[in-house]
Amino acid sequence: MHALIVVSHPSPQSLTHAVARSFAEGVEASGDHSTEIADLAAEGFQPAFSQADATAYLLQAPLPADVLREQQRIDRADALVLVYPVYWWSFPGQLKGWIDRVFSNGWAYDERPDGSLGKRLGHLPIHLIGIGGADGGTYARHGYDKAMRTQIDHGIFDFCGAPVLSSEFLVDVNGQGGAAHLVTARGLGSHAFSKGAAAGGKRAEAVELAPSN
Length: 213
Prior knowledge:
alpha/beta; Rossmann fold; five-stranded parallel sheet
């Protein structure tokens, strides 16, 4: 099994990158599994949704080449892992732009003329790790954790039919340091495929569901 780990942080010395590496170590130590870390900042992925993207969304032209490369990378994976710092209670801009451009109409989902929706990523298990400076009480007190899971877990991945197998916030990094979080990340990686094979099943070209609100 192969996990694609997408990390969004400009500094390779960041805790975000260290967490991504620890998750990868956990995956690879848990069996005959492999990983790839996609460093969006180092690779210079362009997040701005362009006219070419808009035209492709309308299925009037092929997708841009860089988007196709990202989709092919995901297609080779048996699980997708996103590791990111929490900026303004959401994704960093580059990661959000990656979602905007790569999770395209006709690949992640189908918008049909009759208004129904085809969810195409039912074969792709998702693992999410957000890294935040605030403590857990702040997230809970203001409902940030619930709001982010509504926006990301449900709003993005459920829309495409991709099952979110784990969704974690590693918080209070400004207060306690990151050593404990690296242990947690390695543990999460070691279990990445323990339920993923059952949830994802055999990879399908598309999962067609009833119209969704």
